[in-house]
Amino acid sequence: YSCTPEMLHRVAEAAIEHHLGVHIHVAETRDEVQQVKQRTGMTPVEYLDSVGLLDNHVTAAHCIHVTDSEVELLADKQIGIVHCPSSNMKLASGFAPVPRMLQAGARVGLGTDGAASNNRLDVLQEARMAALIHKGYSADPGVVTSKQALHMATYGGAQALGLADSIGTLEVGKCADFAIISLAGAHTQPLHHLHSQLIYAAHAGDVVCTVVDGVVLYERGNFPHLDAERIMSRAREAAHRLVNS
Questions:
Q1: pTM of the full predicted structure?
Q2: Could you say which DSSP state residue 65 is in?
Q3: Domains of the chain with CATH codes
């Protein structure tokens, strides 16, 4: 809704010319949908399709206020949908029809959105929220299973980004991108269902190690390549300047 038609056309053309993906927020709020309808006579999804943007590789954040036919269109176009449940709840944006998206075979991954509307930026929390809120909203305990939530947090995210050939699963030839999560804590015991324990019981504090492309970025409270204390100190200083300026 903040982009002119000319801008969207140019983005679509540039993406095709340079073989690039496009990331855009779509149908996040009812107000956005109403604004786009008033201006174009179309919904955000219909409008983006009309300007050719959906013919590119697109990751579309949120996609909350979409119709069943638009879900089918997003699935057919293989658009990467980024579900951000914590942010959507904090901002009272609504609930994306994720069960319908999964049923339609859409590519759905998990996102945290920005820190201002999420705070924790915790993918395990997003997976848990995704598994819980849709059960409550639909009054159906069978929707968005723990296995589906884990899929969205891993391979589904890779699909949404168009990177499923190189990340998302542990396979020979793919990048070594993975996290090691401890299930030894009392809150994860007794261990009887791996997907369920990871999604409903584990939390960020259980992460032992993270590896990206074979490089250890975090291990047991330490960041080998970062000065965490200095970064946090600078963040506090920047926040102080911003608030008191």
A1: 0.94
A2: S
A3: 5-171 (3.20.20.140)
Rg (CA), the chain: 20
Looking up tokens 């960041």 gives: 223
Among the residue ranges 52-56, 58-62, 67-71, 88-92, the one predicted with the least confidence is: 52-56
CA angle 149, 200, 118 (to 5 degrees): 70
User: What is the Cα–Cα distance from 96 to 64, expressed in whole angstroms?
Assistant: 4
CB-based burial label for 117 (10 Å; 0-12, 13-18, 19+):
middle
Cα atoms in the 13 Å half-sphere on the side-chain side of 164: 15
Residue 210 has pLDDT above 90, yes or no: yes
* Helix 146-153 and helix 123-138, axial crossing angle in degrees, nearest 10: 140
The one-character DSSP state at 200 is I
Q: What is the DSSP string of 213-233?
A: TTEEEEETTB-TT--HHHHHH
159: Cβ–Cβ under 8 A, 6 or more apart, which residues?
Answer: 80, 107, 109, 168
CA distance 187 to 124: 15
